[in-house]
Every structure is written in C-alpha cells, then in structure tokens.
Specification:
Helices cover 23% and strands 34% of the residues. The chain is built from four helices and nine strands, in the order βαβαβββαββββα. Helix 1 crosses helix 2. Bound molecules: inosinic acid and magnesium ion.
C-alpha cells in the first residue's frame, strides 16, 4: 500500500475545507434557530464512523446546550449499499421521551439508514427526531423513500462515490480535510 494518499486517486474536490466550514456554520445556525424555544433536552446523535469529523466541527458551532451520543450501524460494503441495516452499537438512554434527537450523518444515498434510524428512535419514544447530513445524493434515493427529506443538508451532490472528511472507501481516506470524488480506477478492479 502507498504510504500517503495521492491526489491522483481523486477525480476532483467536491467540497473544499472552506466550503465545509461555511456549510457547518450555516447548519449550526439553522439548528440554533429551530431549537431556540425548545424546552427539552437536545441530543446530537452521531452515526459512527462516517459522521465523526463533521459532527466534531458542527457541535463546536452550535450555541445551544446539547448532549452528544453515538450509534453504529452498517449497511455499506465497498461502494455498494446493502438492503439490511444492522445496529452494531445501540443507544441506551432513559431520557429519550424528554429529548429531541438530531441524527448526524455523513451522507444519504438510498436513504435507508436514516429513515430506518428515524423510525427506530421514534418507536423507542424520542420526543422529536430530526436528521442532519453533510451530503445528500437525492438521485440515488430508494423509490419507496422518495418522500424522505432530511431536515438539514450541507450540500446536495450528484451520484458519485466520495471520500474524505469522515467518509471512507473500505475504511481508507476518512482523514482527508476535504470531500473528494474517488477515481473509479481505485475501486473498479476490486
Ligand atoms: P444509505 O442507507 O443508502 O442512505 O447509505 C448511507 C451510508 O452509506 C452512509 O452513512 C455512508 O456510510 C455510505 N455511503 C453512501 N454513499 C457514500 C459515498 O459516496 N462515499 C462513502 N460512503 C457512502
Ligand atoms: Mg456512514
């Protein structure tokens, strides 16, 4: 394996550090505005691992007092989404009925992960559930989830496989400070 990630692995930058910074500032302000009069607890719930970089930047810009928590689910293998969603790390809290949960995701593709988690948290009694994603690929939405619209979106993107800023290809590239389009030559032969 190469020792350093190469710009050559990318077909271009989809979100630069500056654009990401502007998006997280805007999203934090939208959340502060929407929850300004909310009386309950606010939990921002990061979905491991892809959301951690985005969540760390976003939560530093939210001015309202929020608690953080995490769940881990899996639905992806390589560059392909699978239909079945597995909960690998569950959320065990006794205060869901007095809490608004804002789910933080790196990207929405078919929409299955976020719509499943939204239903799951509602069934488990959360007072309110909202969804926040850095990236959204609406053209990839599962036809049965066409009505699923996230509450907070950093950027809508075309149907490209992207990595960086938390997003991975087989666990690689998460540490890049930008979102890049992964060149097909990197995954075509795998
Ligand atoms: P969904 O359930 O099909 O919406 O898939 C969402 C999950 O798939 C995300 O949390 C990512 O882990 C993964 N994913 C979808 N598209 C990409 C991509 O372009 N790059 C990296 N991961 C992706
Ligand atoms: Mg993910």
């Amino acid at each position: 394996m190469e020792k350093y990630y190469k710009m050559d692995d990318m077909d271009g930058i989809l979100m630069s550090p500056k654009e990401i910074d502007e998006a997280t500032t805007r999203l934090a302000a939208e959340i502060d505005r929407d929850f300004a009069d909310y009386d309950g607890k606010i939990i921002i719930l990061g979905i491991l691992k892809g959301s951690v970089v985005f969540m760390a930047d976003l939560m530093k810009k939210i001015k309202l007092p929020v608690e953080i928590d995490f769940m881990k689910v899996s639905s992806y293998s390589g560059t392909q989404s699978t239909r079945k969603i597995n909960i690998i790390l569950d959320l065990h809290r006794a205060d869901l009925s007095e809490s608004a949960v804002i789910i933080i995701e790196d990207i929405i593709d078919s929409g299955r992960t976020l719509s499943y988690l939204t239903d799951y948290l509602r069934i488990n009694g959360a007072a309110d559930v909202k969804t926040c994603t850095l990236l959204d690929k609406p053209s990839r939405r599962d036809p049965s989830l066409r009505d699923f619209v996230p509450d907070y979106v950093g950027k809508e993107i075309p149907d490209e496989f992207v990595v960086g800023y938390g997003l991975d290809y087989n666990e690689q590239y998460r540490t890049l400070p930008y979102v890049g389009i992964l060149s097909r030559k990197v995954y075509e032969n795998n």
